[in-house]
Amino acid sequence: MRLAILAHEAFPGRAKTAQGLLRYGEHDIVAVIDRATAGDQVSDHLSDVQEAPIVSNIGDTPEIDALVIGIAPIGGGFEETWRSDVTGALSRGCDVWAGLHHFLATDTEFARLASENDCQIWDVRRSPDDLSVSDGVARDLDATVVLTVGTDCSVGKMTTTMELVQAARDRGLDAGFVPTGQTGVMVDGSGIVIDRVVSDFTAGAVEQMLLERKNHDYLFVEGQGSISHPAYSAVTCGILHGSMPDAMILCHEVDKEVVHGYESFPLRPVSETVDLYESLARPVNPCPVVAGALNTSSTDTEDAREHIATYEDAIGVPATDPVRFDPDELVDVIENQ
Amino acid sequence: MRLAILAHEAFPGRAKTAQGLLRYGEHDIVAVIDRATAGDQVSDHLSDVQEAPIVSNIGDTPEIDALVIGIAPIGGGFEETWRSDVTGALSRGCDVWAGLHHFLATDTEFARLASENDCQIWDVRRSPDDLSVSDGVARDLDATVVLTVGTDCSVGKMTTTMELVQAARDRGLDAGFVPTGQTGVMVDGSGIVIDRVVSDFTAGAVEQMLLERKNHDYLFVEGQGSISHPAYSAVTCGILHGSMPDAMILCHEVDKEVVHGYESFPLRPVSETVDLYESLARPVNPCPVVAGALNTSSTDTEDAREHIATYEDAIGVPATDPVRFDPDELVDVIENQ
């Protein structure tokens, strides 16, 4: 499919979905829509991803099959300044994909335009109707289950998970991907956005996805949020206990000191965060943090190596930046478990 | 209101909602409906609660205003063997209150009968439409926030919370109750059943309830589940981080060794559970476990005192059974914080 990705005033740093689709999706990205960087190319801002022009609105976008809302704002609301791009896409008969808590299909104008122009609104965050509580059986799977966990939101859990899946497959391992967020679900074409399910079914929804993919030798589960997060920790906890991993990889970002969007909450030392994840796993299914993934995109290469060394010392296990350097180091650790 | 409480084959041990309404509700309970113990009186099974006859079906129930589903089965499903009691109540023009995940108002037959007989179905677990993510502000409240936490489900968190509210009010303290489960909401007449909200909004829904009650000097928050529970820990975690308590009380039950309904999961030592709750609170708002509440209902009084002493030694803080003995001991600890 040919996609345009809406990322107004958020590209690239705060447009996780846009980055994920540009880097890992199999779809053809024909434009990014961002009024703040319009006129640039994607390559002016990101390396090692698909190239595409950045335009200011849907009217400047080449022919597409779908418009994707490529931003995941805190709270998941819809910004009214995006409305003309969405109505423009629907009026042209293009589908719209969105991962917001606010379902676009419930908007009267969008629903009418979709109906009139025979196109679809895919609210990726809408959860299946058949979810239930966990049976507590993920620990019985033969697959080696690897979960990415984080010191905060937006530190690289999705990216690390996708890099691991690719690297594992590149070396011939039978690796499955368990997407738990809107970007992962859009890239994979399946999965459940866990932060949208009924709280009681959080672990159960993750367990269900693992059972559906149980014949893989390795299952890489995309983590969400952080266990130390004042707003999102419930989701993190449910994913940990629902997936009952055999190994965790702690994701972190260079120089991150406070919780994103909740800046009055300082992060605890990373070693304490390792202990907290392991302590929380223990009563349900003991599991070590076996490696670290550090997002070093804000530094140069030499500094990045120093930061990684410091991070390794702090968490006591091997670490790398799987985007900048080589995710194979992490796959080695997992294969040798 | 005059209520009958349905608790087939579950009264009293597995009928938490029935017990809560009998012990703490201000409504008049005119019958318990339980085909297994029909013919008995409530006092044959429970002490210090409202007296009522136990009958086998809705046909044997005196005049009522509402039928309450007084069971909270794992998964929250509706048992078809309860159908004739529900249809019987609606046919008589009585309301029906239910705290199940399965909403009775969505059942075609129930909806039709309610409409025909001009009565209401109150699905207590249905959450408000205006929930959102937490702002992370509960720690800024002037009120002293006390949260009950547990080693498992069904160990006495709701009961302990209600005993604390009553005991605090009895000594003249300005104490508010923050209900988070179906029974608490039915007893209080307000509140949000947290295990039913969208996972991302778990902490936010709790925060919203605290803000609505912020003018009390003390807020007693009903905890849910357990942080060590393979299925329900997400709810527990969201309540802890959303309420940002100043003090926690760890609830436990004598001789409990495995997770209820998940018997292949042994409980960890209670001291480890104390550490886990405190470690999880620390990154968001540091908070100690200040006391313990032990459900000793399965033992005689002498043994109960021994069990409490052992429990106190294990958790390192004062403990009691607030139902069997005196909740004032716990209020003392809280007042002296």
UniProtKB/TrEMBL annotation, chains A, B:
Residue span, D-glutamate N-acetyltransferase-like C-terminal domain: 133-331
Coiled coil regions in record: none
Domain of life: Archaea
Pfam families attached to this UniProt entry: DUF1611 (PF07755), DUF1611_N (PF17396)
Gene3D superfamilies membership: NAD(P)-binding Rossmann-like Domain, P-loop containing nucleotide triphosphate hydrolases
Domain D-glutamate N-acetyltransferase-like N-terminal: 36-126
Protein name: DUF1611 domain-containing protein
Annotated organism of origin: Halocatena marina
